[in-house]
UniProtKB/TrEMBL annotation:
Superkingdom field: Bacteria
Region: Disordered, residue numbers: 1-22
Domain DUF5753, chain residue ranges per copy: 108-286
SUPFAM superfamilies xrefs: lambda repressor-like DNA-binding domains
Name of the protein this chain belongs to: XRE family transcriptional regulator
Molecular function in Gene Ontology: DNA binding
Coiled coil: none
Bias-annotated ranges (Basic and acidic residues): 1-13
Length: 291
């Protein structure tokens, strides 16, 4: 990835910056507009109107019009059907990852683009199940609780984008993935007991993947280096290591070698202090059995 793609993304906490970000998030993402323009061109080349295309791919006239105008992002199923009907030869499909990433909160998009190409990704999440491991119901509950409230459409878009990121778990070539999750995150009943049961079961299932390790940092262990907060450590295809930290919708990619080295040292300590993968699975199984 080019250097410009991994420069640190820093946001200030000033009220003016918050207002600017809120205004920008109300704008139509450029990739949605570009996708829509290309879709319209392919449709006209095929001598179809919007209604005919909608009927051919199983979507309404309004949905096709919204996608062409860039007001609504195309879902993967929409793209697959349009590719087939319009004989698009992959020109829509190649845009789909960027269309999906544009559904994410603006502060997270740069990191999401880097994350999609990593060789390895290690993360510590003390308070919430990490997004790459969340069920749809858990992710929806998190976004539905946002303050100030999101619209239902934004909740849907952010949830879809989060689930799309989970392709990293099984993409080819496999990435090495490690997750350390605070026990508090597992015991906090986000969305209620039944929702959490499904989330625990998904953690057990994902933990069986040969490229994924899930560890739990037990509560009540006293001081450990993760108490300063969550962080992510990644290695890119260019063998470059980067960090990422996030709090209150402020995200920052960390590229300074000394800072990234400190992240690596801290993660090594956390791995040794957390329950190992078998002990972690037993704890999660215990939680499942208690519901």
């Amino acid at each position: 990835m080019a250097e410009r793609d991994v420069r640190p993304v820093r946001e200030t906490k000033s009220s003016s910056a918050v207002r600017t970000r809120a205004r920008e998030d109300g704008e139509l993402p450029g990739v949605w507009v570009a996708y829509g323009t290309l879709l319209g061109h392919l449709r006209k080349r095929a001598d179809l109107n919007q209604q005919a295309l909608g009927q051919a791919i199983g979507y309404s006239l309004e949905q096709v019009a919204s996608v062409e105008q860039g007001r609504r992002p195309a879902k993967e199923a929409f793209t697959e059907a349009a590719e087939r009907v319009l004989d698009a030869r992959g020109v829509l499909e190649v845009l789909q990852p960027d269309v999906d990433r544009a559904k994410l909160p603006r502060f997270f998009r740069n990191f999401a683009a880097v994350e999609a190409e990593v060789l390895s990704r290690f993360s510590y999440d003390p308070l919430l199940v990490p997004g790459l491991l969340q069920t749809e119901a858990y992710a929806r509950a998190v976004f539905a609780g946002h303050c100030p409230p999101f619209s239902e459409e934004i909740v849907d878009q952010h949830t879809e984008a989060r689930l799309s990121r989970q392709k990293l778990l099984t993409r080819d070539p496999l990435a090495e993935l490690s997750f350390i999750i605070g026990e508090e995150a597992l015991r906090n009943p986000v969305g209620g007991p039944e929702l959490m049961r499904g989330q625990w079961e998904q953690l057990l299932e994902v933990g069986e993947l040969r490229n994924v390790e899930v560890q739990v940092m037990p509560a009540g262990t006293g001081f450990h280096v993760g108490l300063d907060g969550p962080f992510v450590l990644i290695e890119t295809r260019e063998l470059r290591r980067l960090g990422y930290v996030e709090a209150q919708e402020i995200g920052c990619i960390v590229s300074e070698p000394a800072d990234v080295s400190a992240f690596a040292s801290r993660y090594g300590k956390l791995r040794s202090q957390a329950l190992n993968t078998r002990e972690s699975a037993r704890l999660i199984e215990q939680l499942v059995g208690e519901t």
